[in-house]
Specification:
By secondary structure, the protein is an alpha/beta fold. It contains nine helices and eleven strands. It has a nine-stranded mixed beta sheet, sandwiched between helices. A two-stranded antiparallel sheet has the order 10-11. Helix 2 links the parallel strand 4 and strand 5. Helix 2 packs across helix 9 and helix 4 packs across helix 6. The longest helix has 19 residues.
């Protein structure tokens, strides 16, 4: 059902005319009467084969809003994205949840790309798309993600990747909130350097029972000499597994990146208490970084 057109919705539709390769269809109802929810498609910044990336744009009413790009994990879009989006929207922050697997015609982890850097053009394309919308404050755009999306969130905090995809635009993400982003890989696996950083704050959350890492792997990352003091903060939930903020049934997967790269099983089980804390902490982080 299409809601009554508002001034904000007309502004976004105008943006669809002005911006290339963007299509929008308004939807809404239920809990979203105060937030304009729009299905969009934008171009990734892959220089060889740009992809049309589907996404859900949620914009609270009011003046140009800060925004957060939400990046899913290996399983694709699930309960996590919308749960964080709604809390961020309630705080006056717009969100764009992108569907990297939809852009590639795959579902789930089985068909995922060989490495996270292949999906960075999707994230930077989302930044460029949001910056071109009149309803969004282009100087206050952040990014968050889960697992695979958490790694995307970490890598977009680095200067080499940002300069590669954003050169000449004056754009960069101003805040990063990765959840359980497989901390052992950074500065150890080629393509996953976390040394030359943009200077934007990074707020990392993880679980003490996450078997991709050891309980102290993420905290130790914040202590490395390559990370300026105070730039990366870490919050761990002792009784939480990987994917603790999902609401889906518990599941055990096998991933070659698990157990510090030795491979093996990874339990993902919901932890409602930790999830509630993580959503609140994420919202508080972005509010601070955006000056709200």
């Amino acid at each position: 059902m299409t809601p009554t057109m508002t001034a904000a919705s007309w502004r976004i539709r105008l943006a669809a005319v002005l911006l290339p390769a963007v299509s929008l269809t308004a939807c809404g109802g239920g809990d979203d009467q105060e937030t304009l929810v729009t299905r969009v498609s934008y171009l990734s910044l892959d220089p060889v084969k740009p992809l049309a990336v589907p996404a859900e744009l949620r914009v609270p009413p009011g003046p140009p809003r800060p925004a957060v790009v939400i990046v899913h994990g290996s399983s694709g879009i699930d309960s996590r994205g919308v749960s964080y989006a709604k809390e961020l929207n309630a705080a006056g922050i717009a969100t764009l949840e992108i569907d990297m697997w939809g852009a590639r015609g795959i579902s789930g982890a089985a068909g995922r790309p060989s490495g996270v850097p292949e999906t960075l053009p999707d994230a930077y394309g989302a930044l460029k798309f949001l910056a071109g919308l009149p309803s969004i404050d282009s100087k206050r755009i952040g990014i968050m993600g889960f697992s695979w999306g958490g790694v995307v969130t970490m890598l977009t905090a680095t200067r080499p990747y940002t300069e590669q995809y954003m050169a000449g635009t004056g754009l960069a993400f101003v805040a990063h909130a990765p959840n359980y982003p497989v901390c052992w890989v950074y500065n150890r696996v080629p393509g996953y350097g976390f040394a030359s950083l943009t200077g934007a704050k990074v707020f990392l959350q993880g679980g003490g029972l996450d078997t991709y890492d050891l309980p102290d792997t993420c905290p130790k990352l914040a202590e490395q000499a390559t990370v300026p003091a105070g730039l990366l903060s870490v919050k761990m939930y002792a009784d939480a597994t990987h994917g603790f903020d999902r609401t889906e049934d518990p599941v055990t997967i096998n991933d070659p990146f698990a157990h510090l790269g030795r491979g093996g099983p990874v339990l993902m089980a919901p932890n409602p208490a930790a999830a509630t804390q993580a959503r609140a902490a994420t919202t508080a982080f972005f509010k601070t970084q955006f000056g709200l």
